[in-house]
Structure formats: structure tokens, C-alpha cells
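User: We ran a pulldown and think these components assemble together. Before we commit to crystallization trials, I'd like a predicted model of the whole complex to look at. Sequences follow.
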Amino acid sequence: MTKIKTLRRATTGLLAAAAMSFAGTAQAEFPDRPIEMTILFGGTANSIAQLLTDLMSQEMSQPIVPVSRTGGGGAVGYSYVVNTPADGYNIVWNSNSINTGNHMGRIDFNYEAFTPIARVSTEIPALAVNASTGWEDLSDMVEAVQASGDVLRVGISGRGSFTHLTSAALFDALGIGEQVAYIAYGDGRAPVELLAERIDAAIQWPGQFASYVEAGELNVLAVTGDTRVNVLPDVATAMEQGYDVNISMWRGLAAPAGTPDDVVAALQAAAEAAVMSDTFQEASDNIGFTPAFLPAAEFGALIAEDDAFYGALLTELGMAQ
Amino acid sequence: MTNSAKDVALSLSLLALSAVWTWLVIDTIPTGWGHGDIGPRAFPMVLGIILGGLCILLLIRTYLLGRTPASKAGTGDVDAIEEASSERWGSMILVAVEISAYGFLLQKLGFLIATPILILFVLVIHLRLRSWKTILGMTLGMTLGCWLFFEKLLGIYLANGSWFNIG
Amino acid sequence: MDIFLQALASAMTPMAIASIGLGALIGLIFGSIPGLTFTVALALALPITFSMDPVPAIGLLLGTYIGGMTGGSVSAILLGIPGTPSAAATVLDGHPMTKQGNASIALGTAVIVSVFGGIFSLIVMIVSVDLVSRVAISFGPAEIFALVLFGLSTICGLCGGSLIKGLISGALGLMIMTVGLDTIDGVQRMTFGSVNMMQGVNLLVAMIGLFAVPFIIEAFAVKTSMPEKSQRISRVKAELPSIGLLGRNLWLMIKCSIMGTGIGAIPGTGGAIASFLAYDHAKRFSKKPETFGKGNIEGVVAPETANNAVTGGTLIPLLSLGIPGDPATAIVLAGLMIHGITPGPALFMNHAGEVYGMYVAVVLAYLWVLGLQLVGIRLFVHVLKIPRELLAVGVLVLCAIGAFSIRNSVFDIYSMGAIGVAAYVLVSFRVPITPIILGMVLGPTLENEFRTAMMLSMGDPEIFYSSPTVLVFFSLALLVIGLQAVSEFKAKKQPKNEVKADA
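Assistant: Here's a predicted model for the assembly, 991 residues in total across the polymer chains.
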């Protein structure tokens, strides 16, 4: 391991040297020291970030170091980065949690405290049920639930979590929002609870369901984004099925507000190259996310748009602070 | 302090803690939504009350039965504490100061400067060592050894200073 | 059979063997240095596996995991500071053995029984992964709650003479873990509005504080009060356990392996609960229960067998259900996913080759661990030659690095100090602190499973008495508490006959 690390260091060093010689005399060129990328969550967020920093480091003259600052639903990491100088040497691997965290009162600043750099990926939630229900698509489920009049037990990761917000929006759009009881689990337990029939439906990431779908134990009824996902190509989106829901989780990079434009541009270019690389595309299929590069300006507009959406949704759920 | 005096002091201070805790919990944490939602308040509140109850039991036992069973605590070496001497409390306070100061310095000056300062302080002021060989060896050895092993060899991030930074 | 031979071939390449060995070494180092934990080592190893082939990559991660699990016992035995929460039970008898000069025997036993437990659980896993995962599925929130409650009842066996003080200590541990952002409702609890408090108290940070800080304070205090006295923890010898000693404990090892595998297979529990239950079991059924806590070898055999048997056990929900049992296996899961090996029921159809390769990798990892550790013991024991106060200085720096590196937060160094000082005060008031760590390990699971169960039943407590599994665990917990209360009551009748301290 150390050998590989040293090897990689050496390679990076060589690349750096090469880059320097091309750059010629431009001494104050960004970056002249390592950049720190704060990671807010473990799991998939961490895996993608590790890969991204690795690939971005190959694009830049200095390495990007992933540093994990988890906890408080992202609040800890955001608070750290927002207090660092706006020079591009501290960036954050952010997500919709900047919107929800602010509206739920976990952080006392909002998305405007950050300069967007680039969107990197999206993850589209999927709704799964036990195969023994016989439900194949959303309307099967809606009809069955309306006919029985029973409460549908829906597994979520936690109140106010992304899976909770997605579920709330989806079931409202399906018109059965009143017949749903949310059961909070830690992460990742949903497939098992579905198998054991302790819950009736669950929204989680498609990667968690893929193996069960293949084994014929679970049915995925819909994905909630505007495109289908690679892991489950046969599953139609909610919009295709006639329900107006379009929610996906984006992840991207941001720096403290006021970071100079040329620094943002340099980081954006590195992120673009990393996202377009074969390694990243291949990993996306395996981990179950979609590479979705979006440059700074469009990314900023998306965040602002999302902020209004989640603000309204959380107010509706009575969770806004 | 005799053992039973210790038990009284312990149960009274923990009783106060549990009272403050329970009050704060009830004051600041919202209840559940009903319909099976236990809510975030229930557990800390019940635990506070249980702690209070246990302290009262301990108090009653110490007073009424007037005896305390010999109980040694299990932290390996530490069960050697028989009498709390002033050296022990002094040492405890110094260690607390050392840890806090180290944390603060790590944040401000980074690992490579904070570590030798801490080690020098501990060896020279706290332990009153006078052997310069040991002091120098420990200070430089620990700092450079840890830095080379963790930061350079394994690539673990050690704190960088926010005031200024070397390495 | 073909596929197995293929797997054997892919796992026996020099690259794979070397990376498993490297993983085992890194795991051992991180597990055995006080303050550092193998969760950090795994996080470190993960990015390196990106560019490797699947089998060596997974081998590296599994090697680190297994090495770390085994290495945790080293500092537990030598210094009384557990390297992982799973090794906290090993401190109770392992460290007294060191003070009696038997460090190398304790270390040797620990590694041999660890390998035994690990291989045993691997065999169980290979033979019955399907069956066990079906049983694991039947463990819902109510069942896990009951199991965890049973685990908590072992506090009774850890609190020496005073049941009340043990319970106080356990309650404190449970309380500490409620601080922070509540995972179910996303509400802040006892954070006083501070962002740092929102992340709560990390279990590993608390563990470092609880065990290492009192060690440091005590070493410094003895040095300052008696500066002329040279402090050595004990004499050094490098003697390995005899075959006879292991043979006598074979039945205990088998029982603890079964226990560890079973508990590991249930998602959300893990090594600490297994090792404490095993310790409690060994003490309860020992011929000489009064020698526990004073260096009884059975007190090392039981928890070490059980916590390594958990490694095979956790692979069952990890591979067949895709559920990581703890933060460490979550990183192994990430490694699998990146290499396109998606755990779940279809894994055994799609990736049989890789799965068999992993089995071989686990065996290789244990062989590496055994080899490295048997050599390592000869080196480790020399740590005891270092004067204790200088050792404590090193421990202080390493623990600060360890606490910091878990999530790169200086706040964690402060919490380590605060918890450590509080632990020292408690110890001087004769409150046992092992129950705190037990309360901390089990607290979040206990609360979350209870709340989830109540949500599932829509507030109907029937969920807790309608399932036979739940009732069995509840009765076991009651039995343990009852037996302890009776024995304390008997001791009370004869005040002169002091209860032997054994926590």
C-alpha cells in the first residue's frame, strides 16, 4: 500500500513538474499548495469523493486531499468550510443537504454562503416493494392501497432525510399521502425490512435494490428522477407513469463565497475532466450513481431552484425552522 | 475520605447532574408525534430519571446499611488508585490542561509545531525530567516519527495550522 | 468445483497474497497502537484499492479488517487501553496477566483463539450462509432491541461488588450517546446550539478517553510523587501459551465462536456485544469465577474468540443482504461496490468466483495475522521496558492523533480529554468504567430499535411480547439480573465476607 502510495506521489510529483515546466514562469498560478476537500458523509458520498479527489489530483499541479468531517447531517463540515478563507484551498463535497440543513435549522447560513464550482453526479431514488405484493408499477400500488384503505408503512432513513422528503413528495403526487406511515431506519436496512414484510414500501438508492430485483425478491416500481437509472434500466420514472415528481440528489463541489473566478474555473475544469474519465464512468455503474457534470453557473441556478422547493416541502411537512 | 463519605459525595453530585440533565432535556427536546412515535425526548429523559433513582438507592444503602462493598474499578492500571492524593488531582488537572492546549495549538499551529511544545511542556514542567538526552530524544523522535509515519508514509491528514503552517 | 479452483487461483497470485498480508499488517499496526483504530486504517486503504483487481483489492480490505480486529487486543493486554471497542472486554483479564508478567502468554493466546474463532465463523458462513441470512432477516427491530438489552444485562457481571454503581456507570454511558443530532427525528439533543456538539460523542473517541487518559494521569502522578522510583509495568518475557492450555479451553472456544458468529450475523450489533456476552458466559460457567478480573486466561480466550468470530458472522449480512454491521464493514462494502461486486441475494449467482476468492482471502488473512503476530509478540513485549511515564507521553500524542483522525475535528480531542478526566474521577470514586463503554456501544442501537419497533406497531407494545425470540432474550436478561441481585443480597448478609472485586 505504501509502495503504491509512494508511487502515486511520485507520479503526481512528476506530473506537477511537467505542468510547472509548461506553465513556464507563472509562479502565483493556482494551486501552489494542496487543496483540502471536506467530505460531509460516509457511504456512497465518501466513495465517490475518494475517487473524485484521486482523479482531480491527476488533473492539477497539486493534490486534492479528501478530509472527512462528518456529523450533524453535514452541519459540521459546512460550518468548517464556510469559515475558511475564500481562496479555493478549502472546498466542500456538497449536496442537497445544504438546502435541507438550512431549512431544518441545523446550519445558520444558506447556500449563498458558498460559491458553486460544479455539479458532479446525481443519485436517483427508487421505490421498492416486496415481490409478493404483485405490484408492478405505481398505479398497481395506488389502486391496492386505495381499495384496502389500510395504512402503507414506508421505510425511510430518518425524519427529514432525503429519502423522507422524496417519499413525501412522491406519495403526495400519488394522492395517497394520507395513508402513509413513515418508519425510520438507519441506513441500508430497507431491503431486509421489505423482505421480512415488516414494511410495505421503501425509497432508497437503486444500488441497494439491484441484487434483490435480479433475484426476484423485490419489485422496484419507479425511480423519482427525470431519467431512468443504469442499474435498473427497465424501471420507468414516475413521470413516465404519469405522476409529476422529479427529485434527484445532486452532489457537487463548492467553495466559500467570494472565491475568485479564475480559481473556480480551474477547479471546474479539473472536475469536468475527472467526471468525463473512463474510470469515473465505470465506477458510476458499479456504485449506482449517474455522472452529471454541470458548470458553475448552471449549478448555482439549480441550487437556488432546489432551495425554494425544499423550503416549501419542509414547511408542508412541519419540519422547517 | 472514607469509602462511605465518597459514596455520599458521588451520589449527591450525580443526583444533581441527573436533575439538571432531566430538566434540560424536558426543556429543550420536543416530544414525539404520537401514534407510536416515541420521539427524541423519551430516552434521555428516562435515563436521567433512572440515574437519579440509582443515586438515591446508593445514598439509602450507604446511610441505612452503613457499609460499602469493596468494589474496584476496572481500567487496568488505574485500579491501583487507593487514596486520592493531591498529586493525583494535580496531575489530573495538568493532563486536562495539556490535552486542551494541545487541541488548541494543533488547530492554530499545526501538528509539527504543537507536538514538540506539548512534549517539552509535559517532560520539563510536568514530569520535571532533567535528562536532556531523554527530553530531546522524546520531543524530536515523537514529532518527526509520527509525522513521517502518519503524514508521509500513510497519508493520514494531521492538523494544519490556521495561523501559519509548515510541512 | 471449477469455479472454486479458479477462485483459488485468483486469490493465490503473489499480488493477492501480498496485498492481503499488507492489509493484515496495517490492520495489526492500527489496531495495536493505542488511540488508532482500524476504521481509520480501512478508510485509508479504500482509495488504494481503486486501481487494483477485485480479489487483491477486497483481500487488502479484509486483511485490514481482520488484522485490526485481532490487533485491538495488543494494547488492551499490554497497556489496558483497548484498540477497538470489541477488545474492551479483553482488558479485564488480559491486562492483569501483563502485570503478573504473563503478557506474552496472554497475547499469544489472544491471537491463536482469534484465528480459531475467525476460521470457525468462516466455515459456518460457507456452509450456512443462506440459512443464517434467513434467520438474520427474521430479526426485526423488536428482536434486536431484546438482544441488545440482554447484552446490557452483562453490566451486572462487570461491576464488581456494587451492582448499583455498575448500573450508574452504564446509565452514564447511555446518556452520553444521546447527545447530538438524533438519527431518527433529526432533532438536536443537548447540543446547546453548538455545531460541534451536533456531531455527538464519537464512540471511538470516548473509548480512547475512558481508557487512555486515566492511564496517562496515573503514570504522571506516580512519577511526580515518587520521582526516584523507576516504573516498569512488568518484567518482559516472550513465552507462548502451551498446547495444553489451549486444549483445556477448546470447549469454551467453540461455544464463544458460535456465539460470536451468531451475533455477528445479526445486522446492527457487532463485536463489542459478542465479546462482553462471551466474557460474561465464561465467568458464569467457570470453575473459578472469583479469579476473573485478576488474570484468568479464560477471560482472554472468551472475548477474543467471540470478537473474531464476529468477522465471519458480519460477512453473512454483508454479502447476502448488503448490510454492513458496523462502520468498518461499511468501508469493506464500499470497496466491494466500487469493484462492481454488489452484495445481495444475486451475488452468489453473479460473482461466485469473487465470493470464493474472498473466502480464500479470509483464510489467508488469518494465516498472515497468525504469522505476523507470533513474530510481533516478541517485539511488542519490549514496549513494557520503556519507563511508564515516557510511554504515557507517547500514548498522549498517539491518542490525540487517533481522536483527531477519526473525523478531523479538534473538538474530538477536547471530548477525549473531558471524558478521560471524568472517567478518572469516577474511578477514584470506585465506580467501574467498563459498563460506560458497554452503555455507549449499545445505547444508540437500543434506543433506535425501540423507537422503530414502536413506529412499526403504531404504538402498540404488543410487538415486544408477541415474538418468542424477544421473550427468550428478555428472560435471559432478567435471569442475569436476578442472579446478580441474589448473589449481592447474600453478600450483604455477611458484611465481613467482602465481595471479591472482579470488574
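Confidence is low (pLDDT under 50) at residues 1-27 of chain A. That may be worth checking against your pulldown data before setting up trials.

User: Thanks, that helps.
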